[in-house]
Amino acid sequence: MSQLPAKHSFFYRNGLSLVFMSLFVVTLCAQAFTGWHQHNSELEQEKAPAISFTKYLNSGHFISATFENFESEFLQMALYVILTVGLRQKGSAESKSLDEPEEVDREPKPGPDAPWPVQKGGLILSLYKNSLFLTFLILFLISWALHLYGSWLDHNQENLLNGEAQDSMAAYLTQANFWFETFQNWQSEFLSMASIVIFTIFLRQKGSPESKAVDAPNSETGK
User: Fold this and answer.
1) Which residues fall within 8 angstroms of residue 104, CB to CB, at 6 or more apart?
2) Has residue 165 got a pLDDT over 60?
3) CB 213 within 8 A of CB 221
């Protein structure tokens, strides 16, 4: 018996993730390449020798810049996932309904198509029910730690080039530089979250699941 052809192509079924992952890889490579040149330019100004691209990928300059951005994105998603459980915004497409029960709030029931943690139950199910938030939280904490590590390495390299003493990581944590890097990214993520919540009250994008229907009233809450 011949196998029926797939209803949709692989790209059609996975286009959103493929496009975003491709954009991620391209822009990360571009960041690494341009950051390498920028860092070598800074070293040249300090009369220090340039470093290879491979060595740059292990430098504090690259590690700090990369995970500084990862950290804020994962924090944004972790907060977005957990805060939308209990908080509401009248008229926003990003909010649950003010009064109506939501499908996402119902208790999971085992079934032939349910994921295996639902079938298993117990502690596994309890973790699975919060796995999206927990995963983003863990990724945020890992990224925060790597941002701190990279920023500390970069700071001590600058001290070395300037003939100054190197700082311990604990001492570096008390200085303004790391927290300036941190908060300048966090505040932009909080602004972007507030923007999507508020703009979807009044603005529309036909065809987007992040928007209400074009003819929906501004007071309608949820998608």
Assistant:
1) 96
2) yes
3) no
